[in-house]
Design a protein that fits this description.
The chain has ten helices and seven strands. The strands form two sheets. It has a five-stranded parallel sheet, with helices on both faces. It has a two-stranded antiparallel sheet with strand order 6-7. The chain is of the alpha/beta class and 264 residues long.
């Protein structure tokens, strides 16, 4: 029997990100990406599968969100997994400088990290796909971001965050869900192109794919190559810094300015 390419890619990613003795908080909105992530983690062999805890946050931003919570809680129970859910009114918690998307992302991440701290979890698994990576890079590019921001998301970090789906395209995940006859919920707000990410997802990416079917993969791979370059340059900078700066007293660094300014 031929191996499923989605499951092969997922196994390859998990090998580098998760250990069997990890306790993993799995962020699950009820949408296709996070539902696929949860099922793929649950389908790992007992020898490889970490302990799983399903976490869901109701953002209080639209009608029907209570049904999403009920769906996720029922899904977790059906998989015999513990779950935790909460509701936090993102509109009330939104900062002046934030878009609704940014506020929801910040509040959701804070919730997941809080769950990890209170349960002693070692990792927090997120359902970001290769499409999310490409969308992130494009959004930052059109906003005039510098090289550091164009690196996109890392598979691991910051902190306990891990993204096992980052090398898998969204449509491949949807096809996998259809093959396995796994249900998920569609968030109607994802169709609202007033939000930057939705505009890029629904308008820009399809146009790029018409010209180049591999556009999403190529954008993500370009970010990965740039990330390798930045990591290498950071290592060289650290090496040069250590050579030219001495720690003469605890908490005090000493250096000759003339030596440092010659460095690129």
């Amino acid at each position: 029997m031929k191996a499923d390419p989605v499951e092969v890619a997922f196994l390859h990613a998990v090998r580098d990100l998760l250990r069997p003795d990890d306790l993993v908080v799995v962020g699950c909105s009820g949408g296709g990406d996070s539902v696929a992530l949860l099922h793929l983690l649950h389908r790992l062999s007992p020898k490889r599968r970490p302990m799983l805890l399903v976490a869901h946050l109701d953002h209080g931003m639209r009608r029907g969100s209570a049904a999403d919570r009920a769906f996720v809680e029922k899904l977790a129970a059906g998989l015999d997994l513990p779950s935790v859910a909460d509701r936090r009114e993102v509109p009330a918690l939104r900062r002046k400088s934030e878009s609704p998307e940014q506020a929801a992302r910040r509040v959701r991440r804070a919730f997941l990290l809080e769950v990890a701290r209170t349960t002693g979890a070692t990792k927090v698994a997120l359902g970001h796909t290769q499409d999310d990576q490409a969308e992130t890079v494009l959004m930052r590019l059109v906003r005039g971001a510098g090289p550091g921001a164009l690196l996109g998301m890392r598979a691991a970090g910051p902190g306990p965050l891990v993204r096992p789906l980052l090398t898998i395209e969204r449509e491949d995940l949807r096809a996998w869900l259809r093959r396995k006859r796994i249900r998920f919920r569609e968030d109607p707000s994802n169709r609202d192109v007033r939000f930057d990410r939705n505009f890029i997802r629904r308008e820009v990416i399809p146009l790029l794919r018409k010209r180049n079917p591999g556009a999403v993969r190529h954008i993500a791979e370009g970010a990965a190559r740039l990330r390798d370059d930045v990591d290498y340059l950071d290592a060289l900078a650290r090496e040069a810094f250590d050579e030219k700066v001495s720690d003469t007293f605890p908490g005090v660094l000493r250096s000759r300015i003339a030596r440092l300014v010659k460095e690129p």
